[in-house]
Backbone:
DNA sequence: CATATTGTAACCTCTCAGGTTACGCATGTC
DNA sequence: GACATGCGTAACCTGAGAGGTTACAATATG
């Protein structure tokens, strides 16, 4: 499977670099605009929080983007992290065609 | 924004209809293959559980698919649900260009 | 110095994933 | 009828994490 080599950019970085900084909007003000607490937004921007579906919808409204954009950023980040953090899933084996035809044993 | 009209298919339905049923594999056996409890898989298949990143990786191994496929199914489902369940996000207003140039007040 | 912004700790509530165990209900088979 | 299998699910526990409020220290900036 073609996997990502490096860790995907955290959605919070995108918010900070591509929106807040260019628009000269503070985290405090942005939190008000989004209708969330300053803590919630701060956590995301400092890569300690996740984009929830609700937050994705809020961001899509404020920045006139799709909510899907933000969901995808978070999804890619989460998947990469799980892929490189846990190992247990690697023990799962592909279902072989042998298993499919196990009925021939009857 | 082009939104989905209908509720996206829950990932659990895909597992059941496109994999377990065609392959004649029971939930019990599949849970063993995935290395999770019967309850966890049962919940997902009955649309009461979510595909976590870890589960997406397990499914990708067992069914020889990408983990991204399962993550996307869950993402679309979650987003649709949030969009049609909560309403608070609709109160968020787009950042106007007025706001951007508010410095001209100095 | 005074004010604004920010990260973050401490604390609370709620939700949810995931595990184990056990029950009742089907549907088989002998 | 007796027994086993598969299944949904309840009850229970642990741990993680979102999100809120309040408060404090640090770092600008006027």
Residues:
């Amino acid at each position: 499977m073609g996997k990502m080599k490096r860790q995907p950019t955290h959605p919070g970085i995108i918010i900070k670099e591509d929106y807040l900084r260019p628009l000269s909007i503070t985290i405090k003000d942005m939190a008000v605009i989004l209708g969330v607490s300053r803590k919630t937004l701060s956590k995301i921007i400092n890569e300690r929080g996740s984009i929830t579906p609700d937050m994705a919808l809020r961001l899509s409204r404020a920045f006139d983007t799709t909510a899907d954009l933000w969901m995808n950023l978070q999804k890619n980040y989460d998947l990469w992290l799980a892929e490189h953090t846990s190992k247990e899933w690697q023990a799962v084996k592909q279902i072989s065609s042998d298993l499919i035809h196990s009925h021939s044993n009857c």
